[in-house]
Amino acid sequence: MEAKNIQGKNIGDIKSSFSKATEDGFNPTLAITFCSIMQNRKELAHFFKEKDIDVFGSTTAGEIIDSEILEQSIVVMLLDIKKAYFKLFFSESQDTYKLASKMAHVAKESFANPAIIVVSSGLTIDAEDIINGVHEFDSSLPLFGGLAGDDLTMKASYVFNSEDETSTGLLALILDTEHINISGLATSGWDNIGVEKTITKSDGNIVYTIDDEPAVDVFVKFFQFPESVYDRSEIIAMNFAQYPLQMKKENGNTVLRAPMMADVENRSMIFAGGIPEGSKVKFSVPPGFDLIDKTRDTFNVLKETMNNPDAVIIFSCKARHLALGPIMEDEAVKIRSIWNKPLIGLFTYGEIGTANDSICDFHNETCSLVLLEEKK
Protein backbone atom coordinates (compact mmCIF):
# COMPACT_ATOMS: atom_id res chain seq x y z
CA MET A 1 0.00 0.00 0.00
CA GLU A 2 1.37 3.37 -1.01
CA ALA A 3 0.37 6.65 0.61
CA LYS A 4 0.81 10.15 -0.77
CA ASN A 5 -0.17 13.40 0.92
CA ILE A 6 -1.51 16.49 -0.82
CA GLN A 7 -2.66 19.80 0.63
CA GLY A 8 -4.11 23.11 -0.43
CA LYS A 9 -5.82 26.32 0.57
CA ASN A 10 -8.72 25.58 -1.78
CA ILE A 11 -10.14 22.94 -4.12
CA GLY A 12 -8.07 24.29 -7.00
CA ASP A 13 -4.86 23.56 -5.11
CA ILE A 14 -6.06 20.03 -4.40
CA LYS A 15 -6.89 19.34 -8.04
CA SER A 16 -3.45 20.57 -9.10
CA SER A 17 -1.63 18.58 -6.39
CA PHE A 18 -3.65 15.47 -7.25
CA SER A 19 -2.55 15.67 -10.87
CA LYS A 20 1.09 15.84 -9.81
CA ALA A 21 0.71 12.99 -7.32
CA THR A 22 -0.79 10.66 -9.93
CA GLU A 23 1.31 11.55 -12.97
CA ASP A 24 3.62 8.59 -12.26
CA GLY A 25 0.74 6.09 -12.53
CA PHE A 26 -0.20 6.12 -8.83
CA ASN A 27 -3.86 5.00 -8.68
CA PRO A 28 -5.43 5.78 -5.27
CA THR A 29 -8.70 4.20 -4.17
CA LEU A 30 -9.21 6.03 -0.86
CA ALA A 31 -8.84 9.69 0.13
CA ILE A 32 -8.61 10.40 3.87
CA THR A 33 -9.72 14.03 3.80
CA PHE A 34 -9.58 16.55 6.63
CA CYS A 35 -10.65 20.13 5.90
CA SER A 36 -11.78 23.38 7.45
CA ILE A 37 -15.52 24.03 7.75
CA MET A 38 -14.89 26.93 5.36
CA GLN A 39 -13.92 24.66 2.47
CA ASN A 40 -16.34 23.41 -0.19
CA ARG A 41 -16.75 19.82 0.97
CA LYS A 42 -19.31 18.86 -1.66
CA GLU A 43 -17.09 19.96 -4.52
CA LEU A 44 -14.15 18.19 -2.92
CA ALA A 45 -16.09 14.94 -2.49
CA HIS A 46 -17.46 15.18 -6.04
CA PHE A 47 -13.94 15.57 -7.43
CA PHE A 48 -12.80 12.33 -5.82
CA LYS A 49 -16.03 10.53 -6.76
CA GLU A 50 -15.35 11.31 -10.42
CA LYS A 51 -11.97 9.63 -9.98
CA ASP A 52 -13.65 6.54 -8.42
CA ILE A 53 -11.93 7.30 -5.11
CA ASP A 54 -13.80 6.69 -1.86
CA VAL A 55 -13.74 9.52 0.69
CA PHE A 56 -13.31 9.28 4.45
CA GLY A 57 -13.76 12.90 5.46
CA SER A 58 -14.13 15.18 8.46
CA THR A 59 -14.22 18.90 9.17
CA THR A 60 -11.56 20.13 11.57
CA ALA A 61 -10.38 22.69 14.07
CA GLY A 62 -7.00 22.74 12.30
CA GLU A 63 -5.11 20.34 10.04
CA ILE A 64 -1.87 18.36 10.33
CA ILE A 65 0.14 17.08 7.38
CA ASP A 66 3.57 15.51 7.75
CA SER A 67 5.40 18.06 9.94
CA GLU A 68 3.11 21.04 9.31
CA ILE A 69 0.19 22.45 11.24
CA LEU A 70 -2.32 24.37 9.13
CA GLU A 71 -5.58 26.26 9.55
CA GLN A 72 -8.59 26.70 7.24
CA SER A 73 -7.04 24.38 4.67
CA ILE A 74 -7.51 20.94 3.09
CA VAL A 75 -5.21 17.99 3.71
CA VAL A 76 -5.62 14.64 1.98
CA MET A 77 -3.89 11.29 2.29
CA LEU A 78 -4.28 9.26 -0.90
CA LEU A 79 -4.03 5.47 -0.48
CA ASP A 80 -3.95 2.80 -3.16
CA ILE A 81 -5.42 0.21 -0.78
CA LYS A 82 -7.38 -2.59 -2.47
CA LYS A 83 -11.12 -1.95 -2.22
CA ALA A 84 -11.65 -5.52 -1.04
CA TYR A 85 -9.65 -4.66 2.09
CA PHE A 86 -11.89 -1.85 3.40
CA LYS A 87 -15.49 -0.74 3.68
CA LEU A 88 -16.99 2.64 4.51
CA PHE A 89 -19.97 2.86 6.87
CA PHE A 90 -22.06 6.05 6.84
CA SER A 91 -25.30 6.61 8.73
CA GLU A 92 -27.07 9.18 10.89
CA SER A 93 -29.46 8.92 13.79
CA GLN A 94 -30.34 10.65 17.04
CA ASP A 95 -29.52 7.39 18.86
CA THR A 96 -25.75 7.18 18.73
CA TYR A 97 -25.57 4.00 20.79
CA LYS A 98 -27.76 2.07 18.34
CA LEU A 99 -25.91 3.62 15.42
CA ALA A 100 -22.56 2.49 16.82
CA SER A 101 -23.91 -1.00 17.45
CA LYS A 102 -25.11 -1.13 13.83
CA MET A 103 -21.65 -0.02 12.71
CA ALA A 104 -20.08 -2.88 14.69
CA HIS A 105 -22.52 -5.37 13.13
CA VAL A 106 -21.61 -4.16 9.64
CA ALA A 107 -17.91 -4.44 10.49
CA LYS A 108 -18.24 -8.07 11.61
CA GLU A 109 -20.42 -8.93 8.61
CA SER A 110 -17.83 -7.41 6.28
CA PHE A 111 -14.68 -9.06 7.65
CA ALA A 112 -13.87 -11.86 10.09
CA ASN A 113 -11.39 -9.64 11.95
CA PRO A 114 -12.24 -5.97 11.38
CA ALA A 115 -10.86 -2.79 12.91
CA ILE A 116 -12.68 0.54 12.92
CA ILE A 117 -11.51 4.13 12.49
CA VAL A 118 -14.51 6.39 13.16
CA VAL A 119 -15.25 10.12 12.94
CA SER A 120 -18.43 11.83 14.07
CA SER A 121 -19.84 15.24 14.83
CA GLY A 122 -18.06 16.91 17.72
CA LEU A 123 -21.07 18.92 18.89
CA THR A 124 -24.10 16.62 18.77
CA ILE A 125 -22.67 13.21 19.66
CA ASP A 126 -21.39 11.77 22.93
CA ALA A 127 -18.41 9.61 21.99
CA GLU A 128 -19.02 7.45 25.05
CA ASP A 129 -22.12 6.17 23.21
CA ILE A 130 -19.96 5.24 20.21
CA ILE A 131 -17.57 3.21 22.34
CA ASN A 132 -20.34 1.58 24.38
CA GLY A 133 -22.35 0.71 21.28
CA VAL A 134 -19.37 -0.98 19.66
CA HIS A 135 -18.03 -2.78 22.72
CA GLU A 136 -21.41 -4.05 23.94
CA PHE A 137 -21.54 -5.90 20.62
CA ASP A 138 -17.88 -6.97 20.60
CA SER A 139 -15.44 -5.64 23.18
CA SER A 140 -12.47 -6.99 21.22
CA LEU A 141 -13.07 -4.76 18.17
CA PRO A 142 -10.13 -2.35 17.71
CA LEU A 143 -11.54 1.18 17.69
CA PHE A 144 -9.85 4.51 16.96
CA GLY A 145 -10.95 7.97 15.87
CA GLY A 146 -12.11 11.41 16.86
CA LEU A 147 -14.82 14.05 16.83
CA ALA A 148 -15.00 16.53 13.96
CA GLY A 149 -14.26 20.20 14.55
CA ASP A 150 -15.59 23.45 13.07
CA ASP A 151 -12.74 25.95 13.58
CA LEU A 152 -14.06 26.64 17.11
CA THR A 153 -17.20 28.34 15.79
CA MET A 154 -19.17 25.78 17.85
CA LYS A 155 -22.07 25.76 15.39
CA ALA A 156 -21.87 22.44 13.49
CA SER A 157 -19.17 19.96 12.53
CA TYR A 158 -19.49 17.37 9.78
CA VAL A 159 -18.25 14.02 8.54
CA PHE A 160 -18.62 13.15 4.87
CA ASN A 161 -18.02 10.53 2.22
CA SER A 162 -18.19 10.72 -1.58
CA GLU A 163 -21.92 11.44 -1.64
CA ASP A 164 -23.25 12.50 1.77
CA GLU A 165 -22.44 14.47 4.88
CA THR A 166 -23.91 14.60 8.38
CA SER A 167 -23.67 16.62 11.58
CA THR A 168 -25.56 13.97 13.57
CA GLY A 169 -24.06 10.67 12.42
CA LEU A 170 -21.02 8.47 12.03
CA LEU A 171 -18.53 7.73 9.28
CA ALA A 172 -16.32 4.68 9.73
CA LEU A 173 -13.41 3.23 7.83
CA ILE A 174 -13.67 -0.51 8.45
CA LEU A 175 -10.45 -2.39 7.71
CA ASP A 176 -9.79 -6.10 7.14
CA THR A 177 -6.96 -6.88 9.55
CA GLU A 178 -6.26 -10.10 7.67
CA HIS A 179 -4.69 -7.82 5.06
CA ILE A 180 -4.08 -4.51 6.86
CA ASN A 181 -2.18 -4.28 10.14
CA ILE A 182 -3.44 -1.53 12.43
CA SER A 183 -1.94 -0.32 15.68
CA GLY A 184 -2.54 2.72 17.84
CA LEU A 185 -1.95 4.52 21.11
CA ALA A 186 -3.29 7.59 22.91
CA THR A 187 -1.27 9.85 25.21
CA SER A 188 -1.77 13.21 26.91
CA GLY A 189 1.13 13.94 29.27
CA TRP A 190 -0.85 16.24 31.59
CA ASP A 191 0.01 16.23 35.31
CA ASN A 192 -2.68 16.37 38.01
CA ILE A 193 -2.59 18.98 40.75
CA GLY A 194 -4.58 19.79 43.87
CA VAL A 195 -6.94 17.67 45.91
CA GLU A 196 -9.66 15.43 44.55
CA LYS A 197 -13.03 17.11 44.00
CA THR A 198 -16.54 15.82 43.30
CA ILE A 199 -18.89 16.75 40.47
CA THR A 200 -22.05 17.53 42.44
CA LYS A 201 -24.35 18.59 39.58
CA SER A 202 -24.02 17.82 35.89
CA ASP A 203 -26.01 16.90 32.81
CA GLY A 204 -24.05 15.07 30.13
CA ASN A 205 -21.11 17.32 29.24
CA ILE A 206 -22.42 20.33 31.20
CA VAL A 207 -21.03 20.70 34.72
CA TYR A 208 -23.02 23.03 36.98
CA THR A 209 -21.32 22.56 40.34
CA ILE A 210 -18.10 21.13 41.73
CA ASP A 211 -18.13 20.47 45.48
CA ASP A 212 -21.49 22.33 45.46
CA GLU A 213 -19.92 25.53 44.07
CA PRO A 214 -20.59 26.92 40.56
CA ALA A 215 -18.12 25.28 38.17
CA VAL A 216 -16.80 28.55 36.72
CA ASP A 217 -16.21 29.96 40.21
CA VAL A 218 -14.19 26.88 41.17
CA PHE A 219 -11.89 27.31 38.15
CA VAL A 220 -11.50 31.06 38.73
CA LYS A 221 -10.65 30.65 42.42
CA PHE A 222 -8.32 27.68 42.04
CA PHE A 223 -6.19 29.23 39.29
CA GLN A 224 -6.61 32.80 40.57
CA PHE A 225 -7.92 34.15 37.30
CA PRO A 226 -8.84 37.86 37.35
CA GLU A 227 -12.52 38.61 37.88
CA SER A 228 -12.61 40.13 34.37
CA VAL A 229 -12.77 36.65 32.84
CA TYR A 230 -16.43 36.57 33.85
CA ASP A 231 -17.21 39.14 31.16
CA ARG A 232 -16.74 36.98 28.08
CA SER A 233 -17.22 33.23 27.74
CA GLU A 234 -14.60 32.89 24.99
CA ILE A 235 -11.94 34.35 27.29
CA ILE A 236 -12.88 31.76 29.90
CA ALA A 237 -12.57 28.97 27.35
CA MET A 238 -9.15 30.14 26.13
CA ASN A 239 -7.85 30.31 29.72
CA PHE A 240 -9.43 27.11 30.99
CA ALA A 241 -8.35 24.96 28.01
CA GLN A 242 -4.96 24.64 29.67
CA TYR A 243 -6.48 23.02 32.76
CA PRO A 244 -8.56 19.95 31.89
CA LEU A 245 -10.14 17.81 34.57
CA GLN A 246 -8.75 14.33 35.17
CA MET A 247 -11.68 12.02 35.76
CA LYS A 248 -11.65 8.53 37.22
CA LYS A 249 -14.01 6.18 35.39
CA GLU A 250 -15.77 3.03 36.56
CA ASN A 251 -13.70 0.96 34.09
CA GLY A 252 -10.53 1.99 35.93
CA ASN A 253 -9.28 4.44 33.31
CA THR A 254 -8.35 8.03 34.05
CA VAL A 255 -9.29 10.36 31.20
CA LEU A 256 -9.11 14.09 30.59
CA ARG A 257 -12.13 16.31 30.00
CA ALA A 258 -11.37 19.63 28.36
CA PRO A 259 -13.37 22.80 29.10
CA MET A 260 -14.77 24.10 25.81
CA MET A 261 -17.21 26.86 26.73
CA ALA A 262 -18.73 28.59 29.74
CA ASP A 263 -22.21 29.86 30.47
CA VAL A 264 -21.44 33.05 32.34
CA GLU A 265 -25.06 33.49 33.46
CA ASN A 266 -25.39 30.27 35.44
CA ARG A 267 -21.64 29.76 35.98
CA SER A 268 -21.65 26.32 34.33
CA MET A 269 -18.90 24.77 32.22
CA ILE A 270 -19.37 22.85 28.99
CA PHE A 271 -16.80 20.11 28.44
CA ALA A 272 -15.80 18.11 25.36
CA GLY A 273 -17.21 14.91 26.84
CA GLY A 274 -19.57 13.67 29.50
CA ILE A 275 -18.81 14.01 33.22
CA PRO A 276 -21.40 12.14 35.32
CA GLU A 277 -22.59 13.44 38.68
CA GLY A 278 -20.53 11.95 41.50
CA SER A 279 -17.37 11.72 39.38
CA LYS A 280 -14.09 12.24 41.21
CA VAL A 281 -11.88 14.76 39.44
CA LYS A 282 -8.62 16.64 39.79
CA PHE A 283 -7.33 19.66 37.93
CA SER A 284 -4.40 19.08 35.62
CA VAL A 285 -1.73 21.17 33.92
CA PRO A 286 0.63 20.67 30.97
CA PRO A 287 4.00 19.46 32.27
CA GLY A 288 6.14 21.91 30.31
CA PHE A 289 8.34 21.89 27.24
CA ASP A 290 9.39 18.28 27.81
CA LEU A 291 5.85 17.21 26.89
CA ILE A 292 6.67 16.74 23.21
CA ASP A 293 9.62 14.50 24.09
CA LYS A 294 7.33 12.46 26.35
CA THR A 295 4.81 12.16 23.52
CA ARG A 296 7.49 10.99 21.09
CA ASP A 297 8.87 8.48 23.59
CA THR A 298 5.40 7.10 24.29
CA PHE A 299 4.62 6.60 20.61
CA ASN A 300 8.08 5.22 19.97
CA VAL A 301 7.06 1.96 21.68
CA LEU A 302 4.78 1.26 18.72
CA LYS A 303 7.89 0.54 16.68
CA GLU A 304 7.97 -2.78 18.50
CA THR A 305 4.70 -3.79 16.86
CA MET A 306 4.97 -1.85 13.58
CA ASN A 307 8.39 -0.67 12.51
CA ASN A 308 7.57 0.23 8.91
CA PRO A 309 3.98 1.52 8.55
CA ASP A 310 2.63 2.75 5.23
CA ALA A 311 0.64 5.60 6.80
CA VAL A 312 0.27 7.50 10.07
CA ILE A 313 -2.99 9.16 11.19
CA ILE A 314 -3.30 11.55 14.15
CA PHE A 315 -6.39 12.70 16.05
CA SER A 316 -5.20 15.54 18.29
CA CYS A 317 -7.38 17.59 20.63
CA LYS A 318 -7.93 21.25 19.74
CA ALA A 319 -7.89 22.13 23.44
CA ARG A 320 -4.40 20.60 23.57
CA HIS A 321 -3.41 22.86 20.69
CA LEU A 322 -4.80 25.92 22.50
CA ALA A 323 -2.93 24.99 25.65
CA LEU A 324 0.45 24.20 24.06
CA GLY A 325 0.51 26.75 21.25
CA PRO A 326 3.53 26.83 18.90
CA ILE A 327 5.25 23.77 20.40
CA MET A 328 2.57 21.62 18.75
CA GLU A 329 4.45 21.95 15.48
CA ASP A 330 7.57 20.59 17.20
CA GLU A 331 5.46 17.66 18.35
CA ALA A 332 4.34 16.96 14.78
CA VAL A 333 7.98 17.05 13.64
CA LYS A 334 9.07 14.60 16.32
CA ILE A 335 6.18 12.19 15.76
CA ARG A 336 6.82 12.08 12.03
CA SER A 337 10.54 11.51 12.64
CA ILE A 338 9.79 8.18 14.36
CA TRP A 339 8.83 6.50 11.07
CA ASN A 340 9.37 9.17 8.39
CA LYS A 341 6.21 8.07 6.61
CA PRO A 342 3.25 10.09 5.27
CA LEU A 343 1.36 11.55 8.24
CA ILE A 344 -2.06 13.20 8.24
CA GLY A 345 -4.19 14.48 11.08
CA LEU A 346 -6.76 16.91 12.38
CA PHE A 347 -7.44 18.87 15.52
CA THR A 348 -10.57 17.38 17.06
CA TYR A 349 -13.18 17.98 19.75
CA GLY A 350 -12.30 14.65 21.38
CA GLU A 351 -10.33 11.49 20.68
CA ILE A 352 -11.03 7.75 20.75
CA GLY A 353 -8.09 5.49 21.48
CA THR A 354 -6.26 3.30 23.95
CA ALA A 355 -3.70 4.64 26.41
CA ASN A 356 -0.95 2.47 27.91
CA ASP A 357 -2.36 -0.35 30.09
CA SER A 358 -6.00 0.66 29.54
CA ILE A 359 -8.99 -0.23 27.42
CA CYS A 360 -10.33 1.92 24.57
CA ASP A 361 -11.84 5.15 25.85
CA PHE A 362 -12.91 8.68 24.95
CA HIS A 363 -10.27 11.32 25.68
CA ASN A 364 -9.69 15.08 25.62
CA GLU A 365 -6.41 17.02 25.56
CA THR A 366 -4.93 13.85 24.06
CA CYS A 367 -3.13 12.78 20.91
CA SER A 368 -4.43 9.47 19.49
CA LEU A 369 -2.17 7.95 16.86
CA VAL A 370 -3.03 5.19 14.34
CA LEU A 371 -0.61 3.23 12.13
CA LEU A 372 -1.57 1.34 8.97
CA GLU A 373 0.50 -1.26 7.14
CA GLU A 374 -0.47 -3.63 4.36
CA LYS A 375 0.57 -7.19 5.06
CA LYS A 376 3.07 -8.60 2.59
Characterize the structure shown:
This protein folds into 2 domains: 3-187 and 290-374, no CATH class; 191-285, no CATH class. The chain starts with a strand and ends with a strand. The longest helix has 15 residues, at 96-110. Strands 14, 15, 16, 17, 18, 19, 20 and 21 form an 8-stranded antiparallel beta sheet that branches. It has a 6-stranded mixed beta sheet with strand order 1-6-2-3-10-11, with helices on one face. The chain has helices at 11-22, 41-50, 96-110, 127-137, 215-223, 233-240, 291-300, 318-324, 327-339; strands at 3-8, 30-35, 54-59, 63-65, 68-70, 74-79, 86-92, 114-120, 143-147, 159-160, 165-166, 169-176, 180-187, 191-203, 206-210, 213-214, 245-248, 254-257, 259-263, 268-271, 280-285, 311-317, 343-348, 351-353, 361-363, 367-374. It has 376 residues and is an alpha+beta fold. It contains 9 helices and 26 strands.
How much β-strand is present in the residues?
A: 35-45%
Mean pLDDT equals 90
Helix content: 25-40%
Shape summary = globular
Largest sheet: 8 strands, antiparallel
Structural class: alpha+beta
Q: How far is the first residue's CA from the last residue's CA?
A: 9 Å
For the secondary structure, the number of strands is 26
Compute the number of helices.
9
Please give the domain count: 2
